[in-house]
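Model it.
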Amino acid sequence: MILNFYKSGILGLALTICSFAYGQELDPDVAVFDEDINYTYNFFEADKNFIEENFELSESYYQLCLNAKPDNPFLYYRLASIALQRHDLNLAESYIDKCLEFDDKNEWYLYMAGNIYMYASKFDKAEKIFTKLIERKPNEFDFYACLSDVYLRADNLKKALSVYNQIEKKFGLDESISIQKKNIYLKLKKKKNAEAELLKLVNANPEEEHFKLILADFYVQINEIDKAISIYKSILKSNPNDGFSHLGLAGCYQYLKDLENFFAELNAGFASTRVPCSAKVEILVDMTRDQNLIKEHFEQIFNLAEILIQYHPDDADANTIYADFQMNKGNIYIAKLALQKVIETRKDKYGIWEQLLQIDYQLADWNSMIKHSNEALENFPNIPVLYFFNGISSFQLSRYEQAKKSLDFGYKILPKNDMLERDYLTFLGEVYYKLDDKATAYSYFDKLLVVDPDNLMVMNNYSYYLSLDRTDLPKAKSMSFKTIQKEPENATYLDTYAWILFEMHQYSEALKYIQKAVDFDSTRSGVIIEHYGDILYFNDDTEGAIEQWKRVKTIGNGSDKLDEKIAAGKYIE
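Modeled.
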């Protein structure tokens, strides 16, 4: 009998600098329209490719221009920009130094130089550059911001603070500057000064809840939880649906180990449309990392996932984590629906495809597995496991040629000693047997039993096939005997062994094992009962044989010779 397989940051800033500097008017001596036609052509090609971010090609054209005009600072400036984009700080620095040799007055060149020196940790040089720029243009905010960045990178907090105070005095109160000052004061262990900076923001904008939230978050950061709770509650008093305040309160209650209020506030925060889906997903992801929290409060956390999907039903990330929770609950069909929503917009996420295919397998939904594996292969044509899923679903639907095609190709690209090798060899053997190429099928089974000599399922099926073909019966008997030694109460294995003995005309021995198979068969298999009748017949019990054949009629799944056996009262091959 055959066993069923299924059941058993520098790049971004560099580009910013380049785009910022590109707005300048070119110096007249750049001479775009030059008498030298080659130079003009090369310059335009360099410029065009630079704008299109084809930096390698742009660099080659700028180099050609530089050969013609080695004293042109703009060319060095652009080459420095490209080197910075490539993170090659040494080259960028050499180009910008050369640029400044020819023109140390151009503010765009200086701005680029200051940033390159800062990234290269040449803080003294960067400081001089930005100080010079501020002297020349005291109303340019960016120059002050860059100088403060230099001091921060150099860990000179007091000088950075001094620059921030200059900015505030000159340009007025600014949220980003106040927060930077707060951070510096915290590093300097001056909590009161940090608090004062945020209070200035709140007092200057008394109607703005945003600044109150920043202050409350600060109190959480320094463990002054009562002050934080007071602010969150004051915001909720005037705006009961403020999701950020609910989430802030949740954090406070978690700190206080008040889990009842913690989950209550999280529920309210998750039900807020003001809080972006990404923030809620991040909270859930963090919670799943805490194994004790998940173990003790799974239902409350699962409820958050339910609220998340209620308010963000089409979000891919929401559906991804929702599917994980449903899988943990054992609701694999609901998980499947969620993952199908994800792949509508995230076809490039391989992990989602594999998870979806695993669910198809658990549900034995072979049509769905073929569909999903075909779609996945369009996006990931070189992944062996996808060909395996496609092959086994085709096999289960009796599409053996398609199964052979998928499994052959997947096995061909399978890395050596891959975990999937055994599964591939198993199904390749089964597919080739179904296609009546028994020699190839048996070669795959033999190959599998070399790498997996204790694979009982394959030994059982292989030995049964040999018995049906009446080929190499001693080998079939040897393999089958191993299976019943390992699992002496397995009705399928006992049936196979009995049938091999039957084919070897060892009828009395066969009867002993088929009776065990019948005794242990909880499924009332028609195949086993018919074999029982056949073996009884050759043990001179014709009446018993007919009785068993008739039982098969009521059970079903009998052979095409069953009616003839009953009518003739004898065994018919």
